[in-house]
Design brief:
This protein has about 210 residues and is mainly alpha-helical. It contains eight helices and two strands. The protein has a two-stranded antiparallel sheet with strand order 1-2. A hairpin with a 3-residue loop joins strand 1 and strand 2.
Length: about 210
């Protein structure tokens, strides 16, 4: 009886330890990087993000700084980001403005298109590799269907936010907020690119040293 109780106690301790370790790890990986203003530092802190961005760049031919700038604008690198809820009678939390979710703020409809087009049925919007691949896929589609240059972060963000149909119709032309947001994405993309060019731990083929 004493032996059974002791074994049960050890199993409980082991289970609790595993659960705590998983919770700590999840907390560490879900919070934004400590320095979101420097892409070299982001990739140094998050090697998994670097590898995922590299793979997305090679797959979709969209520069990693462009994809990362779009993701920063959408979620500030918060894994489970959602649009804020509106308020009913200024007090009661109500519906959200859209179904956007995750690093890339992908809507349910856009995410379904991505899953169907890529066959990546196990993808999750709050998983960084899947989210950056989605951004690359979407921006590549804008490049192909709207003839937007792959390095044109300004126009690519307009198409990302307004949708391809909205971009073609020019719904963004009288939207000062959106044009300002696209300008900030473009500036961040250029800054990220300059940082990567000076990053001592990356070579031209995106090989990570360290």
């Amino acid at each position: 009886m004493w032996r059974e109780w002791r074994e049960w106690r050890e199993r409980v301790r082991w289970s609790v330890g595993v659960a705590l370790a998983a919770a700590i790890l999840a907390g560490c990986t879900s919070r934004p990087p400590s320095n979101s203003e420097n892409l070299c530092e982001i990739f140094k802190e998050r090697p998994r993000w670097y590898r995922a961005a590299k793979q997305a760049e090679e797959r979709w031919m969209i520069p990693a700084p462009v994809m990362m700038a779009v993701m920063y604008k959408e979620s500030s690198y918060v894994a489970n980001a959602r649009p804020p809820r509106s308020r009913l009678l200024w007090i009661i939390p109500w519906k959200r403005s859209s179904s956007a979710y995750g690093f890339a703020q992908a809507t349910d409809a856009a995410w379904s298109d991505y899953l169907r087009d890529t066959g990546n049925r196990s993808a999750d919007r709050d998983d960084f590799p899947d989210a950056v691949d989605f951004v690359g896929w979407y921006l590549n589609r804008s490049h192909r269907q709207a003839n937007i240059a792959r390095e044109d972060a300004y126009s690519l963000y307009l198409s990302y936010y307004a949708g391809l149909g909205g971009y073609r119709r020019g719904t963004w032309r009288n939207n000062a907020w959106l044009k300002d947001a696209a300008t900030r994405v473009d500036k961040r993309s250029n800054r990220y690119q300059r940082q990567l060019d000076r990053c001592p731990r990356l070579d031209r083929r995106w090989r990570w040293f360290g």
